[in-house]
Write a structure and sequence with these properties.
The chain has 280 residues and is mainly alpha-helical. It has one domain (2-277). Helices cover 66% and strands 4% of the residues. It has helices at 2-24, 29-40, 60-79, 92-118, 132-158, 171-189, 193-222, 236-261; strands at 50-51, 54-55, 83-85, 163-166. The longest helix has 30 residues, at 193-222. It starts with a helix and ends in a 19-residue tail after the last helix.
């Protein structure tokens, strides 16, 4: 009974959530993209790439993470549709290195931030001076890993007969994917508007894609409909549910943060700043 009510109310719920988010988010396409980034990223201007004097919707690290995730998902849709097996174990040591690079650079950057904000730990030396290039590159590796791990979990949950093959099993595919992502990073580091405009779009789309997939999986589990889909045309309703829940989460965080800060702008670095507890 409850399941039937939830299914039937889904279109109305989706309409209301989308309408509420469009109403609360800043005007214009970039304003809407800012509102997505606002829910998951500190958006500190000094740690972001800029279009003229306008920071991108996501900081450099988050831009690398979520744009890489979006590109990885697009590639997987082509080379590994419906695959539900985790990447081959031979890639795990490399994934570990990429994760360690992300963690080390994030920790080093966080230490530098604390020094800037509060003046604490000045006697603790940084490993190196943080910069946006390293934030972008380490974020890219993490975003790729996130997408590679979520993709098989998603397909293993929704399809009745998923492809059990590993999502990634050949070095050629991995090198091609990672090479593509690094090539995009090199273009981004040119900071040319022709490159930054697509980045401003792909980063937030990566946020939406990952959250939609996660909430779609949760929806199927809660509705006790995991491993029930057979045809691609059946995936529309679960994806709509996942998208609605993802946007509802973004809307909720946006409202809470807007209430706390009173602004849609990114957090600032200064003596009175309270961002030290929230960002890397």
């Amino acid at each position: 009974m409850i399941q039937a009510i939830l299914q039937r109310s889904l279109p109305l719920a989706a309409t209301l959530v989308v309408a509420a988010w469009l109403w609360i988010a800043p005007p214009g396409l970039l304003g809407k993209l800012d509102a997505i980034g606002y829910a998951v990223c500190h958006r500190i201007p000094e740690r972001s790439f800029h279009l003229d004097d306008r920071p991108l919707p996501l900081c450099a690290r988050c831009s690398g993470t979520f744009s890489a995730a979006a590109i990885t998902l697009l590639v997987l849709a082509i080379i590994a549709p419906r695959r539900s097996g985790m990447p081959a174990p031979k890639f795990y040591p490399l994934f570990g290195v990429l994760f360690l690079a992300f963690a080390i650079d994030g920790g080093n950057s966080y230490l530098y931030l604390i020094k800037q904000v509060s003046g604490a730990f000045l006697n603790v030396p940084n490993l190196y001076l943080p910069n946006n290039a390293l934030r972008l590159l380490t974020g890219t590796g993490m975003g790729m890993i996130m997408a590679l791990m979520l993709w098989p979990a998603f397909h293993a949950t929704i399809w009745q007969h998923p492809d059990p093959a590993p999502t990634l099993e050949r070095w050629r595919d991995f090198l091609g994917l990672y090479g593509l992502l690094l090539g995009v990073d090199l273009l981004v580091l040119s900071e040319h508007p022709f490159v930054l405009y697509p980045l401003a779009l792909f980063g937030p789309l990566g946020v939406l894609a990952l959250l939609t997939m996660i909430f779609t999986v949760l929806w199927q589990i809660v509705m006790r409909q995991e491993n029930t889909l057979i045809h691609v045309r059946q995936i529309g309703w679960p994806l709509l549910a996942g998208f609605t829940l993802a946007l509802l989460m973004i809307l909720t965080i946006d409202l809470i943060r807007l209430q706390l800060t009173g602004t849609w702008y990114g957090l600032s670095i200064g003596p009175s700043s309270w961002i030290a507890g929230f960002s890397l």
